[in-house]
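Researcher: Batch entry, complex prediction.
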Amino acid sequence: MKKQYFLNANIIDPKNSLEELGGLIINEEGKIEAVGKKVNKNNIPSREKYIDLKERYLIPGLVDMRVFVGEPGYEYKENFRTLSNAALAGGVTSVVTMPNTSPIIDNVSIVDFLKRRGRDKSKINIFPSASLTKGIEGTNMTEFGLLQKKGIIAFTDGIKTIQNSRLMSRIMRSAFDLDCLIMQHAEDYELSNNGMMNDGVIATKLGLQGIPDLAEKIIIERDLSLLEDFNCRYHISQISSSKSLNIISNKKDQVNFTTGVSINNLSLNENDIGDFRTFLKLSPPLRTEDDRNSLIAGINKDLIDVIVSDHKPEDEESKRLTFSQAATGASGIETLLPLSLELFHNNSIKLSKLIQLLTSNPAKILKIDKGNLSIGNDADFCIVDLYKPWIVKKEKMISKSKNTCIEDKKLQGQVTNTFVKGIELFKI
Amino acid sequence: MASTHKAIKISQKHLLGIQDLSINDINLILNEAKTFITLNKSKNKKLDILRGKTQINLFFEPSTRTQSSFELAGKRLGADVMSMNIVNSAIKKGETLIDTAMTLNAMHPDIIVIRHQDSGACNLLSQKVNCAVINAGDGRREHPTQALLDALTIIDRKQKIQGLRIAICGDILHSRVARSNIYLLNMLGAEVNIIAPSNLMPKDISKLGVNIFSNMKEGLKDCDIVMMLRLQNERMTSSFLSSNREYYEYYGLTPDKLNFAKKDALIMHPGPMNRGIEIDTKLADDINKSVIKEQVELGVAVRMACLKIFCE
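Model: Structure tokens for the complex:
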């Protein structure tokens, strides 16, 4: 590989507190050699070719902590190849894949398969998670230690929640012993039973069973209480309501934990469901505008650490049904960054803060050296045209499944190039 | 029957819910229905307004009165009516609603009447077929023809709806009839009281412009109409109530409780009734107070009006 020079870019690298106009040099091994304002036309060899980014933004490749891939079992929804193409188009270079495949990622032999497929078919960094319980049945723990040795980065039942408090306390103890990261999807099944959307006047009008925000709050409250006694690396996968945020705010000083939020819950609310739009059937459900605003405030108050895409590809057949029968989830990895930028453009969240929640924060929680532009690291980054307007079109989506929840939405800001290990793998 | 010569205009292509209708639409349907009341009592009940038209009744949920009412309404207007009980056919073989819709659409019906256990099923169907769709009840969302026939019954007895105080009591949570009635009665200027135990009250229903009560005494005060709802035990997946007898004690309509309402208050019920659970059996049959049979009778007239208007 030849050395590459990028100049005149707005560089944002939250991990290294870098926010300046400058350049980036990638060495022959695809590693970052130099970055920042020191890198300019004057201090690179005159005969070398360089790329003038004309003040476009250069940021670390995104780290998406919550991504569903259909492999194995649901390859018709998404496979590693299509996932990585979609991710690259959105500037995402590292993902944590959820264990909700068929079979479930719950034992070491499947992890070998997964790593092989991930390595052979994927162009981005795949960090697989495994389930907390065998078959995500919520009864017997998986082999955290052995799975972690095989390269599992975190443990979660993905779309499911550990209901049993005793089991949860034991999971936390094991996770403490083995230094494992536990990620919980917070939902009390008794309260969310048969629910399809936020419990409120819209659900009442649409005649749909509601999911009260209490269903989320109660699990968070329980887990954070357990955590006081059984301290382990614990992450709340996603929150959706101001009630949950209040609990988090109260407990933040007492116990160590981190919190994620889906870009969907930051950008949309229950009104967007409109006339039974099944593409907006999500988990956790879209809540009220007040909830959405408090989530944004939560980010600004450092109560929320990570923004995820909650990328859940579903084929058309799973969505062309009545709302109650339709599958839950939306495909969104390629729009994660552009949709996040909406929060910058409408002055809700500072740009560097957004980038931090999309890059260095998740990497820190996962204990991986990704999501930064540190010297000597793999050159995983993307270039963003921050002001470019475009419209989300289902047919132009790269993911194998087109179930976007922001069809026809006008966005501003688009990834123009994405590099992994110094190789340009996406160009608009 | 002057109205049959008038150009009839309705703002909607389908009848999916009262929410979509304007006040003009509602008056149009109610006025049309009035013309059919007398016809339905006469010796020769058959018209040929819908001759040559095909009506398909698509019932995914068991139904006696609504289905037979729609069937009769179509036949009286001269349509070819086909009733399909999907409960035990294609859907069991794994066919989706959309596929069933496409299949039926290929047979060129003029109108499809659908009842489905899922809220919004009729909306989905209406997006996929070329003909008009009439909602005969979808999940717990809407049952527009029931609300229209209730309104017609009230108008028939009280000559108006504007200014009346109307109580809707019982299992509001699972009731599409309650929802459609709330929209319609509000539009027609009634004051609507909702009475239910908190466990059967939908979230934030007060935002729909109704007064909410959890006891009958307060809720029935000065009411002109008492609309009882069926306790939908089949939709209750977990414990909502301790027992039917306790429910009857607190929420069942008895002569004592009816005394809280106005003296000339009328009792309504969309049926089928659970006698001795939500309503005292003698009260239900009291011809001076109960208009339950009249509701069924006017139901045919309202459905004839809807079929006629939406078929055009």
